[in-house]
Design goal:
By secondary structure, the chain is mainly alpha-helical. It is built from nine helices and no strands. It has one domain.
Length: about 190
Amino acid sequence: MPIATLAVRAFGLGGATLGTNPVATLTDQLGLWALRLLLATLALTPLRILTGSARWLLYRRMLGLAAFGYLTLHLAMYFAVDQSFDWRVLLEDIAKRRWITLGFTAFVLLVPLAATSTRAAQRRLGRRWQRLHYAIYPAAVLGCWHYYWQVKRDVRAPLVYAAVLALLLGMRAVRAWRRRGAGAVLAGQARA
């Protein structure tokens, strides 16, 4: 749906527009949707825990791949339309502009996740698949940081995204801490 809305605005259907700088608006909106979908992907495990329903996890791959798709479009808009496929400028931007460095690093972290999102890859990689997919956490942190550094004045929106991410990661940390604590208690009881 978000891509359809952006297409309607890009083609000026029904009087909708992308504003005075359509390339920047489209690039920014694609990046925002990538971040939103990445956070939605991370929200599924807490939703499973809170509701007791594992159904939420059925959407994880779809949302993760959608996030990667929007991120790829975000990068493509920047590279193809904004920079006109000028590799020299792109590499200079990655090296000089810290928010671009962060965003590109997040993209690089997500490439292997998208490439190994199939059931066959899960079977082939076994336990390593789960460890590989933990890369979503630093990628999400880098995505929020990229957004924060990219915004010039009003940083409230990036801080809201960062707060949502902190909440989602905090819930995971508390759960892991509780599990370790319970494991230590059980191990102590087993030794006694």
